């Protein structure tokens, strides 16, 4: 496995590859990321993983500085997973000048995560576009855990005519159901025990929708109340149309249930996708 | 020369090319465009020219509907010029859905043309990014006549890490100095005679700056007044720093003098670039 830090060297190195699959990450890798690497390996001759904590997608008050950076361990895990190249740019490499050209997004980016974290998706889309142009993969793999992000990247690829196929990796969960996330490492032991409640609540909402419940607002309220009572600060629990991420109606077939909530200083997100006949 | 109208066919056709140079146009081609084709041909094995009148860069009150469309003649000229492929998408091909992902631009895009035509450069940058992703050229050629556009495209390529080299073609002028433009065809004979005054006035400003004149505001005023007296409606005459297009200072070395003004219903733009030791 090669570790490459500058753009020119990466471009030269990738010229000799017939097909490239790309997994962009912010590091602090867990089994979720590694499952994306496996998908990548199945779809191209060369798997490139980038590790870059992207300041552009953090608001000033957010956890950019304390975001876990575990580069050495990440590289060890990637080597074991069979990644071919790790792209490890520093900030001056990706942002040599102030990033004044950015991606502006549809209203879908203003709901849910976008409403809670203004500018977040603009920062994500901009760095992903840059990384796509640097790596020029045929395939890129994103985790379904960040489902709204996945849908925004899909939309960007389609509307900007990027010659890239986006693949989604299913959310990898701990035994108790908690979706794996780099931010789980912030949780204290008692919080970690409580954390699986987010997935459990979304699962309850899903089962009730599948069973024919049509009052989605009441379900959302129930879920938020349940988490609130257990000490969570809830940003949202939302029953949405899977494609548009606007609030679902009873005529929809494909649903996404998305949730975001705080345990102490740690913000967790999760989602479930399903269809109703 | 091949004429290709759909994206998939173009991608398949271009796969066998070792190097591609691209000239995006809105058609109604003149010697200025054809000079860009010559530059393209010198830099790659395959020259692709696109013709697409891009609704996204026209404001509702602007001349999208009456913009001259001369496809047959354009294709004839391109064949004579040695272009290899003409990409002729229709609106549904480039905008199958509402273009909700767009390029957001730095403040440089809000001055001069951007101030007179809000949204213009956003529309230009968005369609150019799409075309770049469709054609995937190594080289793209733009006319220096649209100098602010050229600088914005250069900035976008740099900041989005597009693997494309941007080349500029010098402004081609009629014998009397008028910069060639598709919009010149709107001019009535008397207006056409007057039109060269825009270039003449910019030339005067340039000569005075070169001669050491440092009161740029006074020069701008003089130029605008001169055009106004001859019946023009002046949008701006501006002495600018060539890289940033902010107003020039006497410490600058490289200048751009840019002008935009109306003759009747026709808006003309022009510019001159030069250095002062």
User: Looking across the biggest beta sheet of chain A, what order are the strands in?
Assistant: 1-4-3-2-6-7
Number of helices of chain A: 10
- Remind me, CATH topology of the largest domain in chain A? Rossmann fold
**Biggest beta sheet attributes of chain A:** 6 strands, parallel
- Note the beta-strand portion of chain A: 15-25%
Q: Looking at the structure, what is the overall shape of chain A?
A: globular
Low-confidence stretches of chain A: none
Q: Considering the protein shown, what is the CATH homologous superfamily of the largest domain in chain A?
A: HUPs
Instruction: Just give the CATH class of the largest domain in chain A.
Output: Alpha Beta
Question: What oligomerization state is this entry in?
Answer: homodimer
Average residue-wise pLDDT of chain A: 97
Structural class based on helices, strands and sheet pairing of chain A: alpha/beta
The proportion of residues forming helix of chain A, as a percent range, comes to: 25-40%
Keywords (chains A, B): ATP-binding, Cytoplasm, Ligase, Nucleotide-binding, Pantothenate biosynthesis
GO molecular function (chains A, B): ATP binding; pantoate-beta-alanine ligase activity
Function (chains A, B): Catalyzes the condensation of pantoate with beta-alanine in an ATP-dependent reaction via a pantoyl-adenylate intermediate.
Catalytic activity (chains A, B): (R)-pantoate + beta-alanine + ATP = (R)-pantothenate + AMP + diphosphate + H(+)
């Amino acid at each position: 496995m090669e570790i490459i830090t500058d753009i020119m060297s990466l471009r030269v190195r990738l010229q000799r590859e017939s097909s490239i699959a790309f997994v962009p990450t912010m590091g602090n890798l867990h089994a979720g990321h590694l499952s994306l690497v496996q998908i990548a390996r199945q779809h191209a001759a060369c798997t490139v993983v980038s590790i870059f904590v992207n300041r552009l997608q953090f608001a000033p008050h957010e956890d950019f500085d304390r975001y876990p950076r575990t580069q050495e361990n990440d590289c060890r895990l990637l080597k074991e997973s069979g990644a071919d190249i790790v792209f490890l740019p520093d900030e001056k490499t990706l942002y040599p000048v102030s990033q004044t050209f950015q991606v502006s997004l549809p209203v879908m980016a203003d709901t849910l995560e976008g409403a809670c974290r203004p500018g977040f998706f603009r920062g994500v889309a901009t760095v992903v576009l840059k990384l796509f142009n640097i790596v020029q993969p045929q395939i890129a793999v994103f985790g379904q855990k960040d489902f709204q992000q996945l849908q925004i990247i899909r939309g960007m690829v389609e509307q900007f005519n990027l010659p890239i196929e986006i693949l989604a990796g299913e959310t990898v969960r701990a035994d108790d159901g908690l979706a794996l996330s780099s931010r789980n490492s912030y949780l204290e032991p008692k919080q970690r025990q409580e954390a699986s409640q987010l997935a459990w609540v979304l699962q309850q909402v899903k089962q009730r929708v599948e069973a024919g419940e049509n009052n989605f607002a009441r379900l959302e309220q129930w879920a938020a109340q349940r988490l609130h009572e257990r000490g969570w600060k809830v940003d949202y629990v939302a029953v949405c149309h899977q494609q548009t991420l606007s609030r679902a109606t009873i005529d929809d077939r494909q649903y996404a249930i998305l949730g975001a909530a705080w345990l102490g200083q740690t913000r967790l997100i999760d989602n479930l996708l399903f269809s109703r006949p």
